[in-house]
Structures are given as C-alpha cells and as structure tokens.
Inverse folding.
C-alpha cells in the first residue's frame, strides 16, 4: 500500500470491500425503493401499482435484513466512531463549501482511512443512518403490518399519519440523494470520488495531514 | 496488480448481487402478476365435496316422480286445483309460504315493531308503487287474484306453487291478470307475445326445486321488463357463460339461486330491507348450518391463496368490489327513468314507443324517457348489509336528489365494507305542497282515471293516493330521485378482477369513499407538496453551486 506520488496526490485505500458493497447495494435498493415508492404514492407510473407494491415490499424487507448486517459491521469494526458528531472544524468545512471551493482553497479535512468523514459528513451520515433510515424502516414496517395492528396492540396511530411520515422520509432521502451525488463531483476531478467508491482507493493531496483527534482509534 | 484483482473481484460481487436483487425483484413481481395455477390454489374449501354430492352421476335430490302421483292424475280446470292437489301431500307448505315476504310483500322483522315492504310503505323510481296498480304488479306475486285490497291472504288455494316449481318452463302468468295464467291463447299488446294456457297436468307432474329461470321469471323482469331493475340480474343470467358469472356458469358450476340463497321451509336467505342477508361473516366450517348467502360462507375470510395482500383487504372491501368489475355486461340495464316526459303522442295522436342505440327502449308514452347503459362501472359505498328506505309518508326536500333507499354504514362501522352499487336515477311526481312522493294509479281500464288510460297525472295521482289512504294536496311537480341496488351477481373470472391500480390511483374508482387512507389515491395534498419542495430546493441549491464552481474554474483559466 505504498503512496503513489503523482501531481501532488497520493492514493489511499479508504473504503473496504464490505463498505463498498454495502454502499452500492444500498444505493440500488434506495433507487428502486424510491421509484416504486413514488409509484405507490401515485406520483409516477412505471410498473403498475400491484407490481410496484410487490417490489417495494420485497426490497423493504431485504433492506431490514441487510441493515442488520451493516449495524453489525459498523460496531464490530469500530467504524461507528467515524459517525460520532463533532462541531470542531465544522465551520471551516462549511466555509470551504460556501467560499473556499470557488477560490481553489484546499479542503480543511482531507480524507484518511482513520478519518473518512469530515465533520459535515459525520453529521449528515449520522442523521441518515441513525435517524432517517430507521424512521423509514419503522414507518415502512408499520405500514406493511397495518392489518395486524390490532393483534400487535398498536394504538394511537392512523394509517394516514404513518403513510405521511413514510412519504416525507422518502422525499428527504431523495433530497439527500441529489445533494450526495452532487457532492461526489467536488473531488479533484468530477469522477474522482465515484471512482474511489468503486475501487476503494481515494486520491489524497500530498502533504496534508490529519489531526490526531480526528482519527478513529481502533 | 493485487489491487486491480481486488477491484475486479468487488466489481463482480457488486454486479452479481445487483443481478440477484433484480432476479428477486422480478421473481416477486412475477408472483404478484401471475399466481401459479389459480384454478387449483384458489379453490373454495369444501368445493370438491359439494360437487361430489350434487354432480356425481346419478345423484338425485328427490325420491318422488310427481308425474306418477295419483293426486296429480287429473285434468285441472283452474290453477287453484293444482295448489289444492299439492297441499294434499305438502301439508305444511301453505303455512310456510304465507309467512314469507314472497307472499305478503311486507315484513315485520325489520325491528322497531313496524312492517316494511312494497305495499304502501316504500316507493321507488321505476313503476313507483304497487297500491292501485295490483293487477299489473301482482303478475309477479306467487298467488292468484291479488287484484285489489280485498285479496284474502289466508286463502291457501290462492298460492301459486307452479311459478317457482315448474321445471318445464312452459307455465306463464299473464302480465295483467293479477297473477293468473290465461285460459285461452292471448296476445299481450305491450310486447306482442302470445301467452298460452298451461298444461297443468304436465307442469304439475314435472315440479322440481326452482332453477334460475323460475326465480328469474320475476327477478330478471322487475320494474316492468327485462334489464330494468337490478343491473346484475336480467335474462342473461338465465344461462350465463363463465365470463358473466363464474358460479352460475351453465356449462360449469351451474349454481341455482338457492345454492347461496339457502332456503329452509320456503324461507329464502337474503337481505330484508334493513336486515342484512347475513349478520356475521361465517364460513361453513365455522357454522355448517348457517345460510350460504355470503361469499365467505364457502370462501372463508382469507380466500386468496397466492396473494396475501388481497386477503388484507377483506375486512374493508367486499368481495364484490374487486370481483364484479362492471354489471350489465351482456345486456344493457336501465340507469335512468324520467317520468316527466311521459304522455307525448305521435302524429296520429296515439301513444308510441322508440328504441335506443342498444336496441333497448328509449321512449314510451306511458312511461317517459329511459336511459339504458351496458357494461356499467358500479358506484361504491360503505355498506354494512342494511339499507334504510324512504317511506311514502316521509317528507322530502325537492331541491335535492331524493334518496329512496340508502346503503348504511361508514368507515367507523366494523361491519361495513366498501360495496358496489347500481345507482338508478329518476324523475317522478311528488306533492308540491306536502313535499312527499306520490303514488299514481298507472294501470287501469280505459274508462278509469289511471295514467295509462287518460294520460292525466292529476287524476292518476288523486285516485292513487286515495286508494292508498294518503293525503294529496292536488298540486304535483317532478322531483329527481335515486335508488340503489347492491351489486353481487355477475361475478367475473379471476383474470378479469378490478386491478389494484383502478382504485389505488388519483382517478380511483373509490374517489368518493371517505374515512380510509388509500395509497395511490390519497397522495396529493400538503405532505407531497412539502416533499417536492424539499427535492426541488435541493436540486436548485446544488445546481447553483455547480454553476458557480464552473464559473470560478473558468475565471481561473482551468
């Protein structure tokens, strides 16, 4: 894993195999869930309502199972530490994306295996993985089990409120997706970050160093 | 080198898993589209047993050949003689019959101690009401001679056994003789058909349990002719193909009406005005002696063997809603009857009739304008099995459409489900001063004040109301009315059921159904607006950011 010096960049192995697999598997599921979800919601027509429901339910349950593997991975590998929120350097990152990026300044938090996420990413991914996705899973599961609410003792909820939360969650994920995809183009080339998510190897500017506190301690 | 191999391995893994995902998705969706051999898997419990007992070669339901009975070896001069002969063996039949709604046309089982029925209680927007019109209406009474109020409902010999039990289908009651057949060949001027005197000995020797034609003699022709009233019952149900009704399919299951309308001692299961046809949705495995009137009686409460989602609907959606996509699928049915245009004469000053595009009546001087429609998509209402009826004495609001019978139930009612209906609209006379609907005398001899004699509404209403012992101010107008029929026959083959998206869509068949959230239908509104605003906002935000990045790069000469 020798650093590969060229044009002031070095290659760093940032994303492990499982991580990349999970990322793209999740991406595919989200995409199909979004499309079928919008169809069930009545916002578009593609597969037909019945097929859309079947696919959506199948993927929803697949999601639940695979999310359990992600939870297992994130805790057994200690990767959860990469998601611990912080406000340190947060303002610098915000300033970079609102000002610095236009004037060619370097990113205040270069990626390293020990600190893959800048403070803004930590916040965004924590919100996604710990709030938004669980909200979708919980409301989706409730929605799916609607006919068994009485037996399960579910009270004080209506299908329309659960559906509204699930729909809002879906739109939030779609919004996240748009911003997330755009952010991948902010690397040193447009495709650099996307390439890294396939290969695992990210180009990092040479000479940059990461503060000790930012590093994940195994 | 090593890294490249790793990368390729991952790529293969990702592609493989994506393929797996697609395969599962396709598999899941194909399962939803085409259940494996639905014929086999969706079979109703007990069907094989029932078929075995009813259809096995040589299976017979009777141990008697009526043509050989001594009591029936005579040349009957009048239909009453046949009845007396029947009762000489079937000693309890008359008492049973005379307690049924088929005999009384009134029921006292609807609660609150009152009777309900078509004799002076309810009123409809077809031929309006029976009183004062008996000789015409009672051609559909299971009796002989109910021509006016003097009819003796206790006279056992006046029961017409044959109209229900004639298996030769040669026995016919004449349309205007108060339930009697003719004594010599007679042409009915309205339809030009010749009615023949029955061969009573032959008919009596061939009596049997009623079949669809027997019941259909009245129930297919209610409201004065074929295709008029129900929408799901007309002459096409006499010998339907499977595509019209899977149960009555003449070449297949060939159900008689009583297969579902369980009959005990001449008491036939079915709804009685506000009394639902079945109080509980029990299957025969829950209660094997219960009537089979509900779909659940045979099919249970989780009837779909290959589609669990469909079973999730059975608590809120009646089976009929999905399984009867349209009624009047072979013959058109009357959807509107406007009495206010009746009375026009042709160039010779005579009453006339015209036909519409479907070959069905369009205008009749006696009755006004008709609208017949084929393949009608039902209207849907919450329905707990009961209907409330407007009484002829009830006050109406002539500014609104007068609802003559109303399906009861709403989303909060645990026994109510969404049910299809035929909604028949009409325009008919009412009392402008009292604000009540009125009973006109329509049928009568040429010298009477009947509408079909003098074409004078004022006279017809005056005599009709007087006959019915009801007050009439003397001033009439015409008012819009509606009448509902639950749609429950004409059950289509599984491949023709209403698709999910026909209800789960913005232009839903159930767009007027309230109190329930339906994905696909209920997607407009604030929540969706907020959602799209967030999406558009995000897209606009990154769009502007991207443009600024591109501009700054250019400035720096990159």
């Amino acid at each position: 894993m020798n650093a590969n010096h060229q044009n002031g960049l070095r290659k760093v192995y940032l994303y492990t195999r499982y991580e990349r697999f999970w990322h793209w598997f999740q991406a595919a599921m989200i995409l199909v869930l979004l499309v079928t979800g919008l169809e069930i919601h009545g916002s578009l027509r593609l597969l037909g309502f019945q097929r859309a429901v079947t696919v959506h339910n199948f993927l929803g349950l697949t999601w639940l199972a695979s999310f359990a593997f992600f939870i297992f991975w994130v805790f057994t590998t200690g990767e959860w530490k990469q998601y611990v929120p912080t406000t340190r350097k947060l303002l610098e990152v915000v300033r970079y994306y609102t000002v610095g990026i236009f004037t060619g300044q370097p990113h205040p938090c270069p990626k390293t295996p020990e600190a893959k996420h800048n403070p803004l990413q930590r916040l965004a991914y924590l919100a996604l993985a710990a709030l938004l996705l669980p909200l979708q899973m919980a409301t989706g599961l409730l929605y799916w089990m609607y006919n068994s609410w009485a037996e399960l003792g579910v009270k004080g909820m209506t299908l329309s409120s659960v559906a509204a939360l699930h729909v809002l969650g879906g739109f939030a994920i779609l919004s996240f997706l748009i911003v997330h995809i755009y952010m991948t183009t902010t690397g040193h080339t447009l495709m650099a970050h996307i390439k890294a998510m396939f290969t695992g190897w990210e180009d990092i500017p040479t000479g940059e160093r990461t503060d000790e506190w930012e590093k994940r301690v195994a | 080198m090593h890294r490249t191999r790793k990368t390729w391995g991952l790529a293969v893994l990702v592609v493989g898993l994506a393929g797996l995902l697609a395969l599962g998705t396709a598999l899941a969706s194909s399962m939803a589209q085409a259940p494996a051999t639905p014929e086999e898997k969706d079979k109703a419990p007990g069907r094989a047993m029932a078929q075995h007992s009813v259809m096995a070669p040589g299976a017979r339901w009777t141990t008697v050949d009526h043509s050989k009975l001594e009591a029936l070896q005579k040349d009957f001069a009048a239909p009453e003689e046949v009845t007396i002969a029947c009762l000489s063996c079937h000693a309890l039949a008359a008492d049973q019959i005379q307690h049924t709604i088929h005999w009384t046309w009134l029921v006292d089982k609807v609660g609150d101690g009152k009777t309900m029925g078509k004799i002076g209680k309810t009123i409809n927007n077809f031929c309006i009401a029976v009183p004062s019109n008996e000789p015409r209406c009672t051609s559909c009474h299971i009796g002989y001679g109910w021509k006016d109020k003097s009819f003796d409902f206790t006279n056992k010999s006046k029961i017409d056994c044959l109209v229900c039990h004639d298996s030769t289908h040669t026995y016919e009651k004449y349309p205007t003789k108060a339930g009697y057949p003719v004594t010599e060949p007679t042409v009915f001027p309205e339809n030009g058909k010749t009615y023949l005197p029955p061969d009573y000995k032959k008919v009596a020797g061939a009596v049997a349990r009623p079949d669809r034609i027997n019941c259909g003699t009245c129930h297919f022709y209610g409201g004065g002719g074929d295709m008029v009233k129900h929408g799901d019952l007309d002459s096409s149900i006499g010998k339907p193909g499977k595509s019209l009704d899977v149960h009555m399919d003449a070449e297949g299951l060939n159900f008689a009406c009583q297969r579902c309308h369980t009959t005990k001692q001449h008491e036939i299961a079915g709804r009685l005005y506000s009394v639902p046809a079945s109080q509980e949705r029990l299957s025969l495995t829950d209660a094997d002696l219960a009537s089979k009137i509900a779909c659940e009686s045979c099919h249970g409460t989780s009837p779909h063997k290959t589609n669990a989602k469909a079973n999730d609907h059975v608590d809120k959606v009646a089976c009929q809603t999905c399984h009867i996509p349209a009624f009047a699928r072979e013959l058109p049915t009357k959807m509107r009857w406007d009495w206010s245009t009746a009375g026009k004469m042709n160039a010779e000053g005579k009453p006339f009739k015209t036909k519409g595009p479907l070959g069905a009546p369009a205008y009749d001087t006696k009755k006004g304008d008709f609208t017949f429609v084929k393949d009608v998509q039902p209207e849907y209402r919450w329905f707990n099995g009961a209907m409330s009826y407007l009484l002829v004495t009830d006050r109406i609001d002539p500014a609104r459409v007068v609802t003559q019978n109303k399906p009861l139930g709403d989303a909060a009612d645990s026994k109510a489900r969404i049910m299809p209906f035929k909604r028949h609209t009409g325009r008919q006379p009412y009392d402008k001063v009292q604000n009540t609907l009125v009973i006109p005398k329509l049928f009568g001899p040429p010298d009477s004040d009947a509408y079909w004699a003098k074409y004078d509404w004022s006279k017809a209403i005056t005599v009709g109301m007087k006959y019915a012992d009801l007050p009439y101010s003397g001033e009439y107008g015409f008012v819009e009315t509606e009448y509902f029929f639950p749609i429950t026959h004409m059950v289509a083959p599984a491949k023709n059921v209403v698709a999910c998206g026909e209800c789960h869509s913005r232009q839903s068949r159930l767009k007027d159904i309230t109190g329930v959230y339906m994905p696909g239908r209920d997607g407009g509104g604030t929540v969706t607006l907020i959602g799209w605003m967030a999406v558009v906002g995000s897209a606009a935000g990154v769009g502007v950011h991207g443009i600024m990045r591109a501009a700054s790069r250019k400035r720096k000469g990159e």
About this structure: The longest strand of chain A covers residues 9-13. The beta strands of chain A are 9-13, 201-205.
